[in-house]
Design a protein that fits this description.
The complex is a heterodimer.
Chain A lengths: L7 E10 L2 E2 L1 H10 L5 E2 L10 E3 L19 H10 L4 H12 L4 E6 L5 H9 L21 H9 L6 E4 L5 H14 L5 E8 L3 H9 L20 E2 L1 E9 L8 E9 L12 H14 L8 E3 L6 H14 L5 E3 L2 H4 L6 H15 L1 E2 L21 E2 L4 E8 L3 E8 L4
Parallel strand pairs in A: 4-8, 5-6, 5-7, 11-12, 11-15
Antiparallel strand pairs in A: 1-2, 1-9, 1-10, 3-4, 7-9, 10-16, 13-14, 15-16
Chain B lengths: L3 E12 L5 H8 L18 H6 L2 H17 L7 E5 L5 H13 L6 H5 L5 H10 L5 E5 L4 H16 L3 E7 L4 H7 L5 E8 L8 E9 L23 H8 L3 E8 L2 E9 L2
Parallel strand pairs in B: 2-3, 2-4
Antiparallel strand pairs in B: 1-5, 1-6, 4-5, 6-8, 7-8
The chains are: A alpha/beta, B alpha+beta.
Chain lengths: 399, 263
């Protein structure tokens, strides 16, 4: 996908993370450079690390009519959908286009596996899942998208993308293709991942988790902090929302290198960023801000910082926001797409929280502190396990 | 909506009964099933990768390898859409059981093999493929939804796309929820333009309709519990004289697919 595409309107968007529910909470924290990581108080057994946990999920059950979908992941999805007037925008799109013309394309890495884990902790005397968790709809990686489609009565194409940490970035690309081919008129895109034992103990087993709050691009960074988040965006053709920000382009690629280590020269990541620029019809110099993948793993940050220096002129600003929220895995794509859109809408380059001593590999692009400046074009990088890369390009509305 | 048109350049298939598309065609013509070995060969993987890879990866790589070989295309150049309703259920069962008993004993390798995109990750590594790759699911409509995604990629990007649909048997408490007790996988190489390898042309139309698993006579004796096996009506039309079939693509959407064999 290297020819320019017709930009799409991002006619509504919302995000919730450890920083709080809704866009205002994100913006306030990014402006104030206040992160929300805290000592791990989530896993079913002690694990010394820091996490980005959303407050209040436990106290927010799904409405009775949706009880069959009950699980932490769908709760967070429902909480997030209720922010920023987003539900009303989706309902309006459904009425305007018809339910069958609105696609639901969502990214998640682990979906509701937390509920399956819980079931295995509470097996009954016959070794079966406990009766309250014997619900097929939540023991499948499609649980999130199926829930959102059912809860919002959307009947268009419905797909889960699960490519680890690039999941909820790639949904934008799928949506653009469906709209371009006339298979849908609007798409609800986004993603949700919630804390669970699988990722906390899994990344711990891979020795990728820091014992302290993560420090993206710090010289002494020592691993990631895992977080949870939910975010959604409504995409329509540009003429449907002339004043809305734009999805200008996207790039996707594979590293073809290793299941859990990025390519040492960032070949796949570079290819995704270049494809995003090409499909957006943008020269690198027009990019004002890049929200980096910046996980605080030794390898990712080294590769990504070098790539930035190679591809962009000094005037492009860049930062990782994982120091605020933790690495929200399958939700990182949509959360950081929302941060890129906030940067455009509010003229804010979020400071790269957590790096006390910048790694010397980092060039002049890095915004170590939050900066108030006009942002017309912003990119967001998302790179996942299996060498799965995506880059999104957003811009201010031209009108 | 007018029909989308894509071309099929390669087909792969693997089940406990049949080792490939040729065996499937022979079976349709009345030959007895010819069960392959218990594990797919997955020749595209190096011996090292084959030893390390979980069953889900072998199953996907097996049918992907068959379809790409038939297409005459270079695997390194093909965008990939890998669909699976449940991913690797054996690993999910292992993860949940280990986490319930001794979470710090979790195997790092089995954890990174647990991601839904492990099969497509192994495949792109084995074939040196840097093209876009994705891993998708849509419950029991995973095959139709994957076919729609692959068709959209082939047409919007004007690029050939490898579609794989693979689901394996579950075990442990999880298996009672997924209800999938068999292995079935298939693959199609789709191209936006016809070429010398084109086997058939698909005319694909998206229509409202209830998602029900195909119920035609052909499906008798096949794994109804396996979402990837929802591809069988299409595979049968590809194997024979073509014709129309309806494949569930979402809860209230079906793909009306008309298969036109190359003369």
């Amino acid at each position: 996908m290297c020819h320019p595409i017709a930009p799409l309107a991002v006619s509504a968007y919302t995000a919730s993370s450890a920083l709080g529910l809704g866009l205002d909470a994100q913006l306030v924290a990014l402006r104030a450079e206040e992160g929300a990581l805290r000592p791990n108080d989530f896993s079913s057994a002690p694990l010394p690390c820091w996490i980005g946990r959303v407050e209040g999920v436990e106290a927010a059950p799904l409405p009775p009519a949706l009880a069959a979908w009950e699980c932490r992941n769908n709760r967070l999805a429902w909480l997030a959908l209720a922010q920023d007037g987003f539900l009303a925008r989706v309902r309006a799109a459904r009425e305007h286009y018809g339910a069958a013309r609105v696609a639901v394309l969502l990214g998640t890495s682990t979906a509701s596996i937390g509920a399956t884990e819980e079931g295995y902790r509470r097996l009954d005397a016959d070794g079966r899942l406990p009766a309250d968790l014997r619900r097929e709809a939540i023991h499948t990686p499609h649980s999130l998208a199926a829930f959102v489609a059912a809860a919002l009565a959307l009947e268009g194409p419905c797909l889960t993308i699960s490519t680890a940490c690039s999941s909820s970035a790639k949904v934008f690309a799928s949506a653009e293709r469906l709209l371009r081919l006339g298979l849908a008129d609007a798409a609800l895109v986004g993603g949700v991942d919630t804390l669970c034992d699988s990722v906390l103990f899994g990344f711990n087993a891979l020795e990728l988790v820091s014992p302290s709050p993560c420090r993206p691009f710090d010289r002494d960074r020592d691993g990631i902090s895992i977080g949870e988040a939910a975010g959604f965006a409504l995409l329509e053709r540009a003429e449907a929302a002339p004043r809305a920000p734009r999805l200008l382009g996207y790039g996707e690629s594979s590293d073809a290198y290793h299941m859990s280590t990025p390519h040492p020269e960032g070949l796949g990541a570079a290819q995704a960023m270049q494809a995003a620029l090409a499909s957006a019809g943008l020269p690198p110099a027009q990019v004002d801000y890049v929200n980096l993948h910046g996980t605080a793993s030794r390898k990712n940050d080294e590769v990504e910082a070098s790539l930035l220096a190679r591809l962009f002129p000094d005037g492009t600003r860049a930062s990782s926001t994982k120091g605020y929220t933790g690495h929200t895995l399958g939700a990182a794509g949509i959360l950081e797409a929302a941060f890129a859109l906030l940067a455009i809408e509010h003229g804010l380059v979020p400071g790269n929280l957590g790096a006390a001593t910048p790694d010397p590999v980092c060039g002049p692009h890095f915004a170590w502190r939050s900066e108030v400046r006009r942002v017309d074009v912003a990119l967001s990088n998302s790179f996942g396990f299996g060498g799965n890369n995506a880059c999104l390009a957003f811009a201010r509305s031209p009108t | 909506m007018s029909a989308l048109r894509v071309h099929v350049a390669g087909i792969g298939l693997w089940s406990a009964e049949l080792a490939g598309f040729a065996a499937f065609r022979a079976w349709l013509d009345g030959a007895p099933p010819a069960p392959p070995g218990a594990r797919p060969t997955a020749a595209a993987l190096s011996p090292n990768e084959r030893r390390r890879a979980p069953e889900s990866v072998l199953l996907a790589a097996e049918v992907a390898g068959q379809a790409v070989a038939m297409s005459g295309l270079d695997a390194a150049e093909l965008a990939c859409v890998f669909a699976s309703a449940h991913g690797d259920q054996v690993i999910t069962d292992y993860l949940c059981a280990t986490l319930a008993q001794e979470p710090t004993a979790l195997s790092p390798t089995r954890f990174h093999n647990s991601v839904h995109n492990a099969p497509v990750g192994y495949w792109t590594i084995a074939t040196g493929c840097r093209a876009p790759s994705t891993a998708v699911c849509a419950g029991r409509t995973s095959f139709g939804a994957g076919l729609l995604e692959a068709t959209a990629q082939a047409l919007a990007g004007q690029q050939p796309v490898l579609l794989v649909a693979a689901d394996g048997p579950g075990q442990g408490p999880l298996a009672t929820m997924t209800g999938c007790a068999t292995a079935f996988a298939c693959a199609l190489v789709l191209t936006p333009q016809p070429d010398a390898h084109t086997l058939a042309t698909l005319h694909v139309r998206l229509e409202p309709g209830e998602a029900s698993m195909p119920s035609e006579a052909l499906m008798k004796g096949w794994p109804h519990d396996n979402a990837s096996a929802a591809a069988l009506p299409l595979l049968a039309r590809l194997a024979r004289a073509g014709g129309a079939c309806r494949l569930p693509a979402a809860e209230r959407l079906v793909l009306d697919v008309h298969t036109e064999p190359t003369a």
